[in-house]
Amino acid sequence: MPKSLSPLSVACDGQNSPRRTLRSPGWRFCSAIVVAAMICHAGDIVAQDDGRGVTRRLNRLEYQNTLRELLGVNVDFQELLPQDGSADGFDNVGDALHTSSFLLERYLEAATIALDRAVANQPRPELVKLRYSLKDAHQVKTTTEKVYRTSDDDERVVMFSSSAWNAVTLSPFYPRDPGNYRFRISAAAVQSSNRPVTWQVDAGLMLMTGKQHLVGYFDAQADMSTVVEFTDELEPRNTIRILPYGLATAHEVNKIGAEEYEGPGVAIEWVEVEGPLHDVWPPASHRLIFGDLPQESAPIYNQSKRVEVVANDAAADADRILRQFCRRAFRRSVTDNDVAPFSSLVQAKLTEGRSFEQAVRVGLSAVMVSPQFLFLQEKPGTLDDFAVASRLSYFLWRTMPDEQLLTLAEQGKLKDPDTLHQQIERMLTDSKSMAFVKDFVGQWLNLRDLDFTKPGRLLYPEFDDMLKESMLRETELFFNEVLTRDLSLLNFIASDFSMLNGRLAKHYGIPDIDGWEFRRVALPPDSHRGGVLTMASVLKVTANGTYTSPVMRGVFVMDRILGMPPSPPPENVAGLVPDVRGATTIREQLMKHRAEESCASCHVEIDPPGFALESFDVIGGWRERYRLSGWARDAQEVVLNGQKMRYYNGAKVDCADVLSDDRAFTNIDEFKAILLTDKDQIARALARKLLIFGTGASIRAADEPRIEAIVAKVREQNYGLRTLVHEIVKDALFQTK
Length: 737
Hints:
single chain, 737 residues
């Protein structure tokens, strides 16, 4: 925004607007609307800060998810909206969710973009349905490297190289219109010794500075055509790119030539594209707002036109649209007083000569930045049915209540114990519950930081993007498996199974598992795996990419798993950095650290859990020795599969230690057995985390008796995770503010 313009000075006609909307030509909703909306009933919402926690607003993920449900569009606002603050490890805690004029401007911009996607004021886009061969792709037609095998007899292209520059972009296909496109790709593994070959698809703007995203990994079966189908949302001029995983380098293949090469490859036989997909026109998103009203063409505002008397039918239609929209947006029944301020905005725009669509969009934008929408409306004391519906929905679906929840709330039936139980089961069974799994696991176990560090190729050449994606997927699927089957939450400490694919199984040293597809796998007794502590995802986020720290991992175990976070270190004590040269071991360094009186009291609690995990390296691989980047004391040369590695093996890992209560362990398996002697503490810690996440409020001392009651009930049901979720929602802590 130009420095000469304050947020309130941007004119409603958009003449001074720094940003044009995507479809409505030449005008933008002004920030004055934000002020008008915030004034509407703000006093009795923002001021409520008593009860278990302050009145909280939607965080950016919840706002994005709610716009998706409210308008029927899927837009990523994670870069547009500023990052939310966090408390107690979660970014939906009211105390950390602040509001500013800058944030409201961004919310308004997000609402405008979402409306641009939702409202259809153009003719129906032409449906494209085409079939392509990769032989027509630019990379295949122009390359001088002999890495693709083609034939005049068919349309397939066999790809033998996994070098990034040998990825094939579907360059004949660059869509004109945005929307969802369905892709069908026929592929088969060749020369693969009867094993599947994995390949990946990326989508986006395939330019040097373009943004791409991973669509997914897929398995091509040996000597058998398999058709993969997926749908992806594309912007204009976006397309897809295909690259095999785990095959030879371009140099290896080119040296022999694809025609003579005998190693494995992926044959892409054909690619079909259909889209943009619309079952009806105007699309469902448009009908969510305007219903069956006639579609307007793209409106053009005539500033000289002013209508003194608005037609009754237009006013009535606008009022009906706003009333229906406000009910869903405010997540409750609405009154005339609730709708009146927004109706007034619409009527004013109609009087000015705006088109019906433009006028209604002003009202809808104001709704989506109003306190009724941005803040969860919870009055201190026992929550009413509408507040319970919202709290339940944002807990288990991370978005607004659906029509069934709203209807039950309107009927006053939602808090009936049997009805509430049925709704919890319905919501956990619905695929929307994966949003809860991903968000809770991502914050509880810090998995959002999986990309924060990237291990160096020198020390960890085996790390790649597929391994990273597999790490995250294992933990999410494992949590979901425990939740779905109501298995004991003690599986998070020690379990005899995990959810693995071929890449992760190879990383863990578990044989006879191939391909990308995940499945439940029984863990060998000597695998040292089982539970979240030994999952590669957790082990990676508790390291820094170069070395592991027992202190960092120990703090993680105490806080996230045991619910007993240690006190922060004194300000004048420097952090400990392991000696990666191998001159001294981490144990030697920490023993000196513990000798300091100011450090000893904390480190006697922190260090043992961290040492229990020392047998796992930066990327979660099992190790007997530390890796070094150069020769040092006790260094050993490393040769794998006949190839000399660029790193050396250093000192032996010593993972034994003694807890503060004198219980000793020699490895991770013995440490997990010790943790399982206090099952209630594991359940208590997880119950606290789920309560914070589910209510958006920190735990108080007064809440502890209720938490103990929840743990007692869960204990009776073998500590089932699904049971724990039920008991939390049923408890007064969840149903009061």
